[in-house]
Design goal:
Pfam families: FMN_dh. By secondary structure, the chain is α/β, with parallel strands linked by helices. The protein contains 12 helices and 6 strands. The two termini are about 40 Å apart.
Length: about 260
C-alpha cells in the first residue's frame, strides 16, 4: 500500500490507468455524487446534525494539522503499518461503519466489504446496514470484519446481533455511545426524509430471529409494521456505562468504543 500513490501516478501519466475516468480529489467525488443522487439521499449523506456547526468546525480544525517532512531519510521501503488488537497491519486504516447505504446502491455494504478485503484493511459493518451480517460474511470471507453495535432498547436483539457476528467470523465489536437518540438533522427534517422508513438500513433486524418474534406478521408480508417496530427499539436513551458489563458477557471478542468526544 505504501507505493500506491507512486504507482497510481505512473499509470495515470502513461495512460495505462484502467480507472482513468475516476476523480483524483474528494471535491470531485462530491461533485459527481451530487449529480447522481436525488436531493433526499444527497442531504442525508452530506448533511450533518443540527445546522452543521460541529461538522464545519471539525473540518476547519483538521485543516490546521500539517505534515512535517524529515528529509534525507531512506524512504524507499517506507512503512505505515501498525499493531492493533494484537495484529500487525499494513496500514492504520479501516472502512468505518456506514448505515443505510442502499440509498446509493442496493449492495453497497457488500461492495465495501469486498473492497476492504482486496486492500487487506478491516471492514466495520453498521448495525443499520442494508446487507445482513451473514451476507457480508459470505461475500467477503477473507476480510477482517468488525461489527458496529447500536445499544438499542431490546437487549435480547443486541445480544443476538453480537452472537450472529461472532458466528459469522467477525473479529471485534464496536459499540457506538453517541447515538442514544435519533439525531436532529435539519436537512432531513426539511426534506421529510428518513431512509429507514423506506426499508433502508434494517437488514440485520428483519433477518434476526429475536426481532422477528416481536412481529405479528413476518416482515416479508408487512414491512411497514416491521419498520414501525424497529423505530421503537432502535435507540436507547437510558444507555450508560453499566451496559458494557452485559455486552462483555455476551462475547469474548474485543470491544471497542466509538463516539467518545471527551474523557470527563
Amino acid at each position: 500500500m505504501t507505493n500506491f500513490g507512486f504507482q497510481f501516478q505512473l499509470e495515470r501519466y502513461t495512460g495505462t490507468d484502467r480507472d482513468s475516468d475516476l476523480p483524483v480529489s474528494i471535491q470531485e467525488w462530491k461533485r459527481l455524487a451530487r449529480e447522481k443522487l436525488n436531493d433526499e439521499a444527497w442531504w442525508y449523506i452530506e448533511g450533518s446534525a443540527g445546522s452543521g456547526d460541529t461538522y464545519s468546525e471539525n473540518e476547519e480544525r483538521f485543516r490546521h494539522y500539517r505534515v512535517r517532512p524529515r528529509y534525507c531519510r531512506n524512504v524507499e521501503k517506507s512503512n505505515i503499518g501498525c499493531n492493533f488488537l494484537g495484529r500487525e497491519r499494513s496500514s492504520p486504516f479501516i472502512i468505518a461503519p456506514l448505515g443505510a447505504l442502499s440509498i446509493i446502491e442496493r449492495n453497497a455494504d457488500v461492495m465495501g466489504a469486498m473492497a476492504a478485503e482486496s486492500l487487506d484493511i478491516p471492514y466495520c459493518l453498521s448495525t443499520v446496514s442494508s446487507n445482513s451480517i451473514e451476507e457480508i460474511a459470505q461475500s467477503a470471507p477473507r476480510a477482517e470484519k468488525w461489527f458496529q453495535l447500536y445499544p438499542g432498547k431490546d437487549r435480547d436483539i443486541m445480544k443476538s446481533f453480537v452472537r450472529r457476528a461472532e458466528r459469522a467470523g467477525f473479529s471485534a465489536i464496536v459499540v457506538t455511545v453517541d447515538t442514544t437518540m435519533l439525531g436532529w438533522r435539519e436537512n432531513d427534517l426539511r426534506n421529510a426524509y428518513l431512509p429507514f422508513l423506506q426499508g433502508h438500513g434494517i437488514a440485520n433486524y428483519v433477518t434476526d430471529p429475536v426481532f422477528r418474534k416481536r412481529l405479528a406478521v413476518e416482515p416479508e408480508k408487512d414491512m411497514k409494521s416491521a419498520i414501525m417496530e424497529w423505530l421503537g427499539i432502535y435507540v436507547n436513551p437510558a444507555f450508560d456505562w453499566n451496559y458494557f458489563d452485559e455486552i462483555r458477557s455476551w462475547t469474548s471478542l474485543p470491544l471497542l468504543v466509538k463516539g467518545i468526544t471527551g474523557v470527563g
